[in-house]
Amino acid sequence: IQSDACPFPPPEEIVTTILEEDPAWQAECVMLLRARNHLRDWLTAGEDRGHGSEQAPHPDPGRDAEGDEDAPPPTPSASEVFSPALIEHFEAATPTAQRRIADVRALVRHALRHWPSGRPLRILQLGIASGGLTRALVPLLEEARARHVRPHLVVADTSESRVSRLSALYIRSPGIDVVHVDATLETLEAFAPFDLVVSAGGLHGLDNVPALLGNLAGHLAEGAIAAVSENVPSAFHDVIFAGTRGWFDTGLVDGVARGRLRDRDHWSALLEDAGLVREAPDTDLILARFRPGDLPRPATDEIEQHAPASGEPDTAPMPRPPPV
Q1: Pairing state of beta strands 220-229 and 194-200?
Q2: Closest CA to 227 of 317, 290, 184, 152
Q3: Mean pLDDT on 214-234
């Protein structure tokens, strides 16, 4: 909300200048203006109700919050403030999102090209994030099958609505499953162990993500690799999503609420709890290899069930990730 004394041009003028310079940032610009209008209306509504409570200092305790005029205004979800189409564009088609997706896609492409023919390659995508990464991986899976590689992609998310929308798109696609999970990850037992774990802007949208990642180790194959790309915390994201439900519900730092985004060191520490140790600390893309340590090895029958084709080595090492 702009003050009369603000030395900067009005937001509309700033947005117009940005779009004239580079139209690729249209999603960010539109969301900024909508967030400005939403915060102004939402905070004003709260002030109006606060004034009303002074006129009625003894509300009926039997009235529920839904019918209580003095109750604070409900916090809307992001999809209620921004259209689903706008959120999808923001999460999957902006320059920043496309760079995240491209980084992870490059790792998957490299792995598929070097994976032994006829041997299953199980890929776990954590977080749907509007489906941009899934769409980028589908052509790679089809190319790999033409070379007799056997990839299987499992896309997992804690949101039933996101899972429902994406599963409807790929219900007839071979080698792709979209599943709903909770922090226990029990749903993944039918598909594990995974050789690759990937995510592009999807981790921060998962519920109870520390516990979820902590339970990941039991679903990974020996030598598995993780490739994760996430936005770092920024004032822009906190302003955009400040008035949406759940953005500031993830914890306090020195008594100050912080949004859902975390820096790379934080995500690396959570992955390490699952035995995924970061190998390239100086890159934006988090690359980590599974080092189970004292974790129990799979039973003999499980090893036989996933044994490679005759003539192949028992343990084909994962190729080193490409430079990013």
Answers
A1: parallel
A2: 290
A3: 94
Question: How far apart (Å, rounded) are the C-alpha atoms in residues 267 and 113?
Answer: 28
Separation CA 247–CA 80 (nearest Å): 14
Residue 157 is inside which H or E element, if any?
A: strand 150-157
CA 301 to chain centre: 34
CA–CA separation, 67 and 72 (whole Å): 11
Residues 6+ apart with CB under 8 A from 162: 128
Q: Place 46 in a pLDDT band, splitting at 50, 70 and 90.
A: low
Q: Report the alpha-carbon distance of residue 245 to residue 80 in Å, rounded.
A: 10
For residue 261, what are its two tokens?
A: 């985004």
Contact 202, 126 (CB under 8 A): yes
pLDDT at 55 over 90: no
Decide if 31 contacts 79 (C-beta within 8 A): no
CA-closest candidate to residue 95, choices 27, 165, 9, 20: 27
For residue 321, give the nearest of 277, 288, 284, 272 by alpha carbon.
Answer: 288
pLDDT of the residue at 295: 46
Handedness of CA 231, 234, 239, 244 (dihedral sign): positive
